[in-house]
Every structure is written in C-alpha cells, then in structure tokens.
Write a structure and sequence with these properties.
By secondary structure, the protein is an alpha/beta fold. 35% of the residues lie in helices and 21% in strands. It has nine helices and seven strands. Strands 3-2-1-4-5-7-6 form a seven-stranded mixed β-sheet, sandwiched between helices. The protein is globular.
Length: 244
C-alpha cells in the first residue's frame, strides 16, 4: 500500500515548479543550520556509522549532499520524480545516489533493505506532511530500513508549530512568498501531536533512544528581517540497545 495519487501529484507539481536557486524552497535551509545540527545529535547514537545513510524525503538533495561528505554511501529517496531529477541535476559529481520511492509502501522499503542491508536513516519534516493514514506505514518502513543495527534520526514539527504557521498564513500581507506555493499545491502541513510520534515508533517495534526539542530553521524571513523558525521535536530511534 502506498500514498494516494492525489498526494503524489501534489508533490510532483510542487517540485516541478520549485525554484532551483539555493534556499528557494521554504524548508531548504543551508545544511549548517539543519542537517549539521541534527547530525551532531544523531552521531553519538550511531553504533554502525559505516552503514548506508538514507535521506528519506530528500527533496532537491541539499541535505543529502551534506551527508554524502560525511558517510561512505548516501542514498536520497523521494516520492516525487521531479524532486529526484532536481537532486541529480544539483549533484553533477554524483556525491550521492537518488531514487524515487514511495516509502509508505512497506514492501518497497523491504526490497530496498534486501539490497542495502541495515541502514541509518535521516528524515526531516516528512511525517507531518503525510496523510494521517500513511504515518504508521511510513514509520514501519523506517523500521524495515534500519533493521537490527541501523538508527534513525526523525525531526518533525512540534504541535506548537501549527499556531506559528497559521499566523503566517493569516498575516494581512498573506503568507510569505516561499510558503505560499506549499499551500497552493495542497501540501498544507498537518498537525501531528507531540505524543503521537513516539507511539508510532513503538508500534513499529523501535525504541526511542534520545529525544529533544529545537527550532527548525527555514529559508524565509519575517517583515522585521528575522528568520522564521518553527518549533520541532527530534528523536533518535532504533532497536533496543543491549548491554554486554
């Protein structure tokens, strides 16, 4: 089972029209402020850093290329073919691999695991953009990819981000220019309860190994010139750690 055709079409439309310049997409902040921050939280929990690293929901590959500078094999996955094409164009040296994959389809994730073996996974801001019915299948696929030795770093908008986004959309001047296309393509971020993510993780057979809160940096600015940041939660998950 995978995502609905409407949802896939929405993402194809978004990435087909997305600007190609650095920082042109609302959430595509520079890696030093995004994946770099998350990696500092993630790395202490990697028991096998030599495993393939999967960037799940890679978009145009900005964070994937950053990860490819730090791990021996990095694979970016995205639902939209247009995103994968953009990622490949932005990576002419082939630092990373990019593939289209509907990861809400657990059988597709299991097939990829059969190819890669256990993998480490980085997933930023994907779950809250999913249809509610796709959230557990998505985390089940994360569990399939990590297997026994892999770890996953999951970063999602906190409940409190909903109020911030609503305020931006309802502003007298309309939503910020980089946020408007997200809503125009029908990809309005859903609100996932803070307590729901650990529950999804546990239902997938994984354990929360570390967790915390931090601002999620965007590429957009308020009228006063301050950068827009959204409250987020991060978790490192994997099979339960054992002591020898």
């Amino acid at each position: 089972m995978g995502v609905t055709s409407r949802y896939q079409e929405a993402w194809e439309g978004f990435w087909s029209e997305a600007p190609t310049e650095a920082g042109g997409v609302f959430w595509d902040a520079e890696p030093a402020l995004t994946a770099g921050v998350h990696l500092a939280l993630f790395e202490p929990h990697l028991t096998a850093p030599d495993l393939p690293m999967v960037d799940l929901g890679c978009g145009n590959g900005t964070q994937t290329r950053f990860l490819a500078d730090r791990f021996p094999r990095v694979l970016g996955l995205d639902l939209a073919a247009a995103a994968v094409e953009a990622a490949r164009r932005a990576d002419p040296a082939g630092q990373a691999e990019f593939r289209q994959l509907d990861v809400a389809d657990k059988s597709a994730a299991e097939q990829l695991h059969a190819e890669l073996g256990d993998a480490n996974v980085y997933m930023r801001g994907v779950l809250h953009q999913c249809e509610p019915a796709d959230r557990q299948p998505l985390i089940d696929s994360v569990a399939a990819l990590t297997g026994e030795r892999g770890r996953a770093c999951l970063v999602e908008l906190a409940e409190a981000a909903g109020a911030v986004l609503r305020g931006l959309v309802q502003d007298a001047g309309g939503p910020p220019p980089k946020l408007a296309p997200v809503f125009a393509h029908g990809i309005a971020p859903g609100e996932v309860a803070d307590a729901a993510v650990p529950e999804l993780v546990r239902a997938a057979g994984l354990t929360v190994l570390a967790a915390g809160s931090l601002p999620l940096t965007t590429t957009e600015y308020r009228a006063d010139g301050t950068r827009i940041e959204l409250p987020s939660k991060w978790l490192v998950v994997g099979r339960a750690e054992t002591t020898s």
